[in-house]
Design goal:
Layout: H1 2-21, H2 23-34, H3 43-60, H4 69-86, H5 93-113, H6 119-126, H7 130-149, H8 156-159, H9 167-185, H10 189-200, H11 205-212, H12 216-238, H13 252-283
Helix pairs in contact: 2-3, 2-4, 3-4, 5-6, 5-7, 7-12, 9-12, 9-13, 10-12, 11-12, 12-13
């Protein structure tokens, strides 16, 4: 019995050493994630989720498979952190409430002025600085993009520790992602550049502004406009009941929006036809 106890103690020590040596993996993933989420997200909560996943990974790790523990643990930790984020409201209530107020103000000013209001005009109307408005827009923009990213499951077994999605949900998910890619491709050139550079290439807003020859506030406004277009395009194709009617349905802005929706639908239809044509060619 003494030998068994010593063996158990040695195994526990080895397990503890494995966990301790891999804590930097958790630290790195949490630090990387914190750079992509709104400021109100708790680092401690993400760290706790990561450490819990690290402990679970050490218990299920099988060295005979030839995968280094650090790599195996990183996958589990990243999935746990994503899982934790999914349970968090992406933007605080105050941020969302202020965003609704800003949207209402922009709409009212657009009706009064007959055009889209400038950032300064909106700031004057709500009693905020342009920097405060830009920061609020940025928080909401990151929240929306992270919500989409949070649904991209590179490995369902790693990211969803419980029951996985149904086949119907997977098909719907793939279709939504396909429409998103096509909607980005059909954005007006400058809006597409902003979305691509800011969210995909993670370039600083100052660099994007310099490249486009506009101010950072204008880039922030363009980013918000692009996200509204992307949201509306997805709703137009997948959830028509959620699509909000344009304030001026007979105006030029409404016609441009409808043309954008048509272009996204056409691109999607073409992407579906291409595999079918290839299959016919191979059969022939």
């Amino acid at each position: 019995m003494r030998e068994n106890a010593e063996t158990t103690a040695a195994a526990q020590e080895a397990l503890d050493a494995l966990i301790t040596s891999s804590i930097p993996v958790v630290t790195h993933i949490v630090r990387e994630t914190m750079g992509r989420v709104p400021s109100h997200v708790s680092r401690d909560d993400l760290t706790s989720a990561g450490l819990a996943a690290l402990v679970q990974a050490s218990k299920s790790f099988d060295a005979s498979r030839g995968v280094p523990f650090a790599r195996y643990a990183a996958t589990r930790v990243r999935g746990a952190v994503l899982d934790e984020l999914r349970g968090i409201d992406w933007a605080s209530r105050s941020v969302r409430r202020r965003a609704r107020d800003l949207d209402a103000t922009r709409s009212q000013l657009a009706v009064i002025l007959g055009r889209s209001p400038s950032q300064q005009e909106v700031a004057d109307a709500v009693g905020m600085t342009r920097a405060e408005i830009a920061q609020n827009d940025e928080d909401i923009a990151r929240a929306q993009v992270l919500s989409l990213q949070g649904a991209q499951d590179a490995s369902l077994d790693d990211v969803l520790p419980s029951a996985g999605p149904t086949p119907e949900q997977l098909i719907e998910h793939r279709e939504r992602l396909a429409y998103l890619v096509e909607a980005v491709a059909e954005l007006p050139e400058r809006l597409r550049i902003v979305v691509s550079d800011y969210f995909l290439e993670e370039r600083p807003m100052a660099e994007i502004a310099a490249e486009l020859g506009v101010t950072e506030s204008r880039v922030s406004q363009m980013r918000a406009e692009a996200l509204v277009l992307l949201r509306d395009a997805l709703n137009h194709e997948l959830d028509p009941s959620l699509l909000q009617a344009h304030e001026r349905p007979n105006g030029s802005a409404s016609r441009r929006r409808e043309a954008y929706f048509a272009a996204v639908a056409s691109r999607h239809a073409a992407s579906i036809r291409r595999p079918s044509m290839r299959a016919l060619d191979e059969t022939a």
